[in-house]
Specification:
- There is one protein chain.
- By secondary structure, the protein is mostly helical.
- It has one domain.
- 87% of the residues lie in helices and 0% in strands.
- It has three helices and no strands.
């Protein structure tokens, strides 16, 4: 070894002795253990994100099932309304025929005995 290299080693050892080994050890630990700590942190965040996505899918499934129940309920309402509309139409048709053929009314009797004009 040359005298310059020996002087440099002695200077580094003096710096380490003055400052202490703690900063140097922490720097080495940061370089070697830092990526592992970062990987653990990222993995934890990914797991939380995955859980929230799974929760959103469960909520979507519940929303679809609730929507299906509503649609089935509306189908029942529509079917009952359809029956009601048919019944109301038949009743109004019967009322119209009774009103048109009411022979107890003098005006209707006069019209039925005479000629009826077609209504357009």
């Amino acid at each position: 070894m040359t005298p310059e290299q020996i002087a440099m080693i002695k200077a580094v050892s003096d710096i380490v002795a003055t400052v202490g080994a703690m900063p140097l050890t922490s720097l080495v630990a940061l370089v070697f253990l830092g990526p592992w700590g970062l990987a653990v942190l990222v993995g934890y965040q990914q797991a939380k994100r995955f859980e929230s996505v799974a929760g959103m899918y469960k909520d979507s499934i519940r929303l679809v099932k609730d929507h299906q129940l509503l649609v089935e309920g509306y189908k029942g309402i529509v079917n009952s309304q359809q029956d009601l509309i048919i019944h109301t139409t038949q009743t109004l048709t019967a009322i119209k025929s009774v009103a048109e053929n009411n022979l107890y009314c003098p005006m209707v009797r006069r019209e039925t005995s005479g000629k009826k004009e077609p209504h357009g």
